[in-house]
Amino acid sequence: MNKKELTAAIKQMALDLGADMVGIAPVSRFDGMPAMLGPKAHLPEAKSVVCLGVHHPDASVDWCGEPNPNFPAAFQIGMIPKLDAICFRMSKWMEDQGYATIPQPCTTYWRHRKYKDIPYEHTAPWNHMPAFVAAGLGEYGYHGMVMSPEYGPRQRIISFITAADLEPDELYQGDPLCDSCLACARHCAGRNYELERLNDPKFIEFTMEDKHFRYPNINRWRCFYGEQAHLDTNLLAEIEDMDEEKIYKAVESGVRVPNHGYMCSSFKHCMTPKKRYRNRKYTPGVLRKKEFIETPHAELLERIKRIALDCGADRITIQPLADFTAQKANFDEGFRVDQFFDTFTTVITVGRYTHQFHEEDELNRRNKGHLHAAVVDRISCAAIDITRYLDDLGYEAIQDWFRTGIARQSAKNAGWVKDDRYVALSSVICNIPFESMTEVLREWNDDCVPQVSTALPFMKNMDAVSVGRVDDITYPGMEAIREAYPNMQSLVVLAEAIPERVVELAGAQEAEDGSAYAYAHYEIHKESLWAGMDLCSTLVAKGYNAVPLADLAPESHTTIGKFGRHMPDLRANAPFAAAAGLGVLGKSGLVVNEKYGPRLRFSFVLTDAPLTPTMAETKSLCPEGCKACASACPMQALLEATETIRVKNDVEFPVFTRDETRCAWARSLAMCEGAGSAQLGWKLPDIPLPETLTVETIQAIQDSKDKIQTLCYQNPHFIDIIIERCLQNCPIGKKNK
Fold this sequence. Notes:
Blueprint: H1 3-16, E1 21-26, H2 39-42, E2 48-55, H3 58-62, H4 79-96, E3 101-104, H5 128-134, E4 139-140, E5 146-147, E6 155-162, H6 183-187, E7 203-208, E8 211-216, H7 220-227, H8 244-252, H9 265-268, E9 276-277, E10 287-288, H10 297-310, E11 315-320, H11 337-343, E12 346-355, H12 362-392, E13 397-399, H13 406-414, E14 421-430, E15 437-440, E16 464-469, H14 478-484, E17 490-497, H15 500-505, H16 515-541, E18 546-549, H17 570-579, E19 584-585, E20 591-592, E21 600-607, H18 628-632, E22 638-648, E23 651-658, H19 660-667, H20 695-703, H21 707-712, H22 725-729
Antiparallel strand pairs: 1-2, 2-6, 3-6, 4-5, 7-8, 9-10, 11-12, 11-15, 12-14, 13-14, 16-17, 17-21, 18-21, 19-20, 22-23
Helix pairs in contact: 10-12, 12-16
């Protein structure tokens, strides 16, 4: 494709995947940024930045953030997993076209303290807002948030950096999107815009090509107070000269509220001049003008069903909201619950059956958590997509939030909660008087027996699929799995590759950032489980037993993942994947193959279906005498001694013995600066490496972590970046060795 064709293809792909807006910026527009924050600091050969977004449904702004910002309710439900999936899939496609691309996560990692040459506190290694403006999608408002002509500040955004030379969009040249009405300042819960409370210099000012931007230099510790530390914003205005130590004092004083999230009052009260109007009988915030497009109910329902199917749902039920008055007691105190029930009429709930894990042993407990997180993210994408669709037609629609209990009750009303299957749910509450109905959307009749491959429709995002016969796998850990799941015949491995340049540059580029690397692992973990769930549903529909599994090695230490979601240890699970034919074991103990090297992350499906096995590879791919993985480990956890791991009767591989304590010190506890633990500016505790890790020593380490993590985020690893240097430095599968 030429430049014009590639640009058009990228934009169309973004829209096809569900984005509401997409724009492209040349890297030259970022020249005025601090060096560590620009696109070339993340990808030296960068030429373009692609930014895209999805909009907040109006009702999710009009009704949320009440009674105060500590109670966001439905605000942004489903938006983050939706954007993360779009961006990662587009980045993978760009890599397939031959262009190095770095996807950046929607909700990214923060350096709350100043870091090296970056002159600000509370900076993300990559900020999507400059990308939004540089891509011509809008401009900054007085509050420092970005605004679009159609939605004002009501969009969530994401972006990726690419080496492709694309046709850039012009900077926004329309009517000003902010008229400095100062509603954001007047309604800020902490009075954060008052001149004496601003940092010096009082305003941030910069120019991008011919456009000048200026907004208050807010003390972001004041925002941190409510958003990250979950402290009572009703008390924020009383505190002068906010800093890090005052945050800790507030935490210790006991003014924390339940961790429900956060929705900024300045955001709630902002809209562009052309779209702005008020109706204080409906909402204390500001409303957005939108056109109503009357659409037949039958047409609406068919589109809703299609959206639900595309997001993995297999059933739908529609019920009147009036049937859920018993759930009023679940709403937060101060929420306008009676008015809410008077305004909205209908509950649309979509769901899907998946495996119900019984908590009889550690294997089941571990996998239950992985699957639950993945399926909740996936089904929440259905909620935001349905809600945005109805919102764009001028209807009022809002995503349900878990605490209301409405989704759970609607599933009971529909008769979905039965036998040993778990139903994942997502609801949309709207003002359309649909007739009540309950329907199965999909019977899962894909032809997947005896051959499972990436050609199956639900495997389209997988790079590799392999199958092993359970009886052929001799790796010792398989015995416990056979005991937990008797009569299983086949082990399926579903894998996707981390983009090569993401791995190469992680934490080693000028930006000193591993967030794209962490995001890739996290996204592939979800996507492979989503594909595994669909395969299981298909096999179960054909009369087989099947279960999706993320982790077959329950005694291993997990790896720190994006925002506290720990992921299975790749090395501990590698023998199972190698036995099923995904690749061979490298000296690192990771699965490697010729095309992707060690860059594959994977999940499993265990089934009693007699699937056609993949021919297992037996020849080592490690270069003679290579010790790149062992040499790169900052903890020297891979020892010179080798051990032989037998995965099948006639298949075994020599691997470096791993010191499990040393590896877990870096990978699971984030106690090693060289593995990325210090690249967010955390203060690592001065604790010596213990001989062994016990429950008590692990707890002591976690309690000693940085106060921002332990006291404010209430999770010692909520924001941590771990870069597996053994994986990063392996030469196998690299185009330019």
